[in-house]
Design brief:
single chain, 103 residues, mainly alpha
Length: 103
Amino acid sequence: METFERMALSNSAVIPFSATAAVSAANGGYEAVRFNAMKHGILSRLVVLAHEDGGDFADLLAALIEEHKPAGMTERHLIEELAAIIWRKRRVLLAEAAKINGA
């Protein structure tokens, strides 16, 4: 998973700074939103956050490997990505439920 996050983005995948600056200025500036990713962790580089159980993530990954039996590095990488997506989706759903329930 780290190798995917270290890949360089092509110029076509990056929004030009002027466009992001205009949106940011219109919405109260970067200061107003700079901690958003830390609130929910969906964009964190880490898959498992400090308050989460790494063993549960390991169990999820092991179950996906057992189910799909990846035959090579590409398939293994895709299984790891799938585990990360499922884990992050679970985190968002838990945060949403907590917000709805007023916790």
